Amino acid sequence: MGFVQRAMVMFFLVMASLEISLAAEYKVGESTGWTTLGNYNYTAWAESKTFRVGDIIIFEYHKERHNVLRVAEPNFQACNASSPLVTYMSGNDSILINKTGHHYFLCGIPGHCLSGQKVDIHIPNKSSIATAPFGSPAASPTPKSSAPYPSKGLLGKFGMPVLALSFCASVFVY
Ligand code: CU1
Questions:
Q1: What is the pTM of this model?
Q2: For a tag on the chain, would you pick the N or C end, based on fewer CB atoms within 10 A?
């Protein structure tokens, strides 16, 4: 390979690693927003996404009619709104997902969670490393695990750039 080709390879690898570490924003329910109207399937919505550490989850809703409670798993399963970890009620809440694992949210208005207004934002432990290069969506879904939160956020976030840079280095050896 000539110098120009090597430089281009390095450029693309660096760009790819940068794109992978860029955070994305996801609006829960898309144009439907956060509501009980229309029985939106938030579970299917969440499963259609590949969330990564650093992503922002946006809940948009009528603040007189709904709210957003972050809860622990048993309370998520039981639709128990009595002891939320965090309460959001602005009507337009942007929530940073800053670690892997499950992040459980539900609406605390009586009956809403039971009618389906609940969502599990799940980041598999190895999501960053398993992702295809150049920012394309992962080809195969990562199996869900019920492992507790590990503190692998930094490894996940910097794993790809480090891999890409070490590959760049190996290109320059030849
Ligand atoms: Cu609600």
A1: 0.64
A2: C
